[in-house]
Amino acid sequence: MYAPNSVLLTDLYQLTMLQGYFRQGMEDTAVFEFMVRELPPGRNFLLAAGLEQAVEYLQGLHFTPTELEWMEHSGHFDSDFLTWLEDLRFTGDVHAMAEGTPFFADEPILRVTAPLPQAQLVESRLINILHLQTLVASKAARCVLAAPDKRLVDFGMRRAHGAEAGLYAARASYLAGFAGSATVLAEQCFGVPSSGTMAHSFVEAHDVEEEAFAAFAHACPQNVVLLIDTYDTEAGAEKVVALAPRLQEQGITVKAVRLDSGELAAHARRVRAILDRGGLEATTIFSSGSLDEHRLARLQAEDAPIDGFGIGTRLDTSADAPYLDCAYKLQEYAGEARRKRSEGKSTWPGRKQVHRHYDDRGIPDHDILTVEGDAPSGKALIRPIMAGGRLLEPLPDLETIRRRVADELAALPAPLRGLETASPAYAVRIAPALRQLASEVDRRIARRNG
Amino acid sequence: MYAPNSVLLTDLYQLTMLQGYFRQGMEDTAVFEFMVRELPPGRNFLLAAGLEQAVEYLQGLHFTPTELEWMEHSGHFDSDFLTWLEDLRFTGDVHAMAEGTPFFADEPILRVTAPLPQAQLVESRLINILHLQTLVASKAARCVLAAPDKRLVDFGMRRAHGAEAGLYAARASYLAGFAGSATVLAEQCFGVPSSGTMAHSFVEAHDVEEEAFAAFAHACPQNVVLLIDTYDTEAGAEKVVALAPRLQEQGITVKAVRLDSGELAAHARRVRAILDRGGLEATTIFSSGSLDEHRLARLQAEDAPIDGFGIGTRLDTSADAPYLDCAYKLQEYAGEARRKRSEGKSTWPGRKQVHRHYDDRGIPDHDILTVEGDAPSGKALIRPIMAGGRLLEPLPDLETIRRRVADELAALPAPLRGLETASPAYAVRIAPALRQLASEVDRRIARRNG
What we know:
2 copies of one chain form a homodimer. By secondary structure, chain A is of the alpha/beta class. The first copy, chain A, has 17 helices and 19 strands. Chain A has 2 domains: 12-136 and 322-449, Alpha-Beta Barrel (nicotinate phosphoribosyltransferase), CATH 3.20.140.10; 149-316, Alpha-Beta Barrel (TIM Barrel), CATH 3.20.20.70. In chain A, the strands form 4 sheets. The first copy, chain A, has a 7-stranded antiparallel beta sheet. In chain A, strands 7-6-11-10-9-8 form a 6-stranded parallel beta sheet. A 4-stranded mixed beta sheet of chain A has the order 16-14-15-19. In chain A, helix 2 (51-60) runs antiparallel to helix 6 (123-146).
């Protein structure tokens, strides 16, 4: 089995470029920033996430003897370079937006300032870490905004793209305001409350549905949530009504029923009526099955009597926007700002800061993207996190981040909180100082490479 | 850091259901099958992948003392159940389609036959493993079919959904016919040839582009691929032409140039002309940037002089179809076939076999989905893999699978090899024996649960 934070989980060119830097002694300070160049269609903001895992990766960065041995046998590398790699650790600085901060196109959310080889080497995995959690947290925030009064649970691990996607999706969606996740490992690793019901197979393995319900209730008396759509949803609800009084005599309460198929709003209304008629007014209805923010919004609009939702595949894969147009770009080397000019892909050079300006009610009005140190007005969102390879102070815990996200989402301008594209989009203004730096860089590039 | 194959990487309900089965002593043999219910829009077939990792997971299945301790503290479970879990291992049988086999909707690609608790517990992670690689291998096969004469390399790790997605995407795309991957760890873990060029940051970190080219060539003389679009693509090509003779004098050959932005076909034509005029006829052109099977097909149609492609984000995230409608369903328990009847989600019950029928030229004509043991005509695709928890024989290595895929893809009916939806779709016929079994199951369900 592989180690998820293996230094070899990188692109080959990082290692070959490192060999180049090593040969030339290019170890001056480099500044790289991670940003999203463009928001996916329909998205009005993104939520920064994954900083904790990024820091963990940087803190653990090293080549193991086994990895170095393998690299030697691979034939791609010289032995003096491999010897030099033995001592490579991350000794640089990190600045970043706090996890859970809403951000917009072109705004860096993480900056690495380190000797060039270190800052270069970590590119692929840093993108990989920040991209995934930002992607899922941003999708989850939309679900939370679509159904703010409902209990939302991440059900997506099985169709997430691999182990880490399932695990980190649970963290990212919890951070964004979900109540928990079905993924047990996320509770062990991150304290994300795990939550679960029962599967169709449990019902099918029993000869009779009522027997399955009773068996499950006795096996997990503190959390009886019965899945009632295996054969016929309304008939399943009637069986719950018949069973509940007998369970109640034994001190067991049917907490909820789950619907997983068919027209959820219609089924929920009929099931609600059956439960209420049977005296189970306190038994809630939980629903799942191909849900996303748009289906949540429709169910909310229809006033479906559903109390909670399990959101799975479309959340964990961010199905409508399965990737972000993100990059980790060199902004400065050896004291000089840098940028590439490739068609359609040019970036703003230099060490940057994002200043967020609020209106009288504390609602974000616009951001200003500028060079660090320029015109410090508004709230500066990029803060120091690591210095000299060490964390400056402990990162906030997940509960703290989650509370901050709730505040941040509540404070967003109303058009940004909707599911449709806000028009106009939130304003990110480029400061004159940044435009001037870009011109200077371009003139220098033209002079040297003209 | 987490362990990717931790038994806690599962849904909570698997563990609570297990507690239910344990309480009731339900340890009879269960049969579960993994299948895709429907192909994504535009896909004419899928490629089975991930069996090796699924087997590895089953072979290693156990609860560690730390995990059991954590479960005890979580408060979800009883102590006699936890004691019972200490000895839980996978002791069942596995049948499966060979990795790299094209398959279609409703066809199982993996069957687990084991005591119910074991077969149930592994559901979430087995789906997670098989889904990801099948998803990416199927997408990669389309790229290979779109550009069969070109060298395709997986460049997607950075925007894959986490560590495992990046690693397994490299394996899955290589299996499907890619030449290799940029992901170094995939070479260490699976022998997928790693491949790489240089990044824009390498060029930008040097003051002058020519210097960057020369430095890279000297650092990696055996694999000189120069990225020429950082500032101006055609100017970059001219610099390569100017530099190449000097490098050649030192015994260094410029193997290729890479384009990563703009109109690739137009740039490639101009760059090809510049290189040819400069005597670099043997220097190939490699291209990357937002590629997928459709862009490959267009570039092929335009006859763009590009020799190889790096396919990244859209491959690793299977961007046009980021998930499959797949499931792992109970088909039999205690000798009786089972199925759920949930609306729109009912499945074919029982242990099943897929028989593939070929025409005179060896081209697949149709499949028959039936119950195991029925009318064994055609080629039976589901074969025994594990018995009693042990692998029956070593699984084929990746090179063998890759060769088989090449043959399988070449033999597919022409309409299936196209990128557009084949009409009619490949025929999967349901055998009378399977229809009869489904009716019997339904009558039994109705009798018991009516």
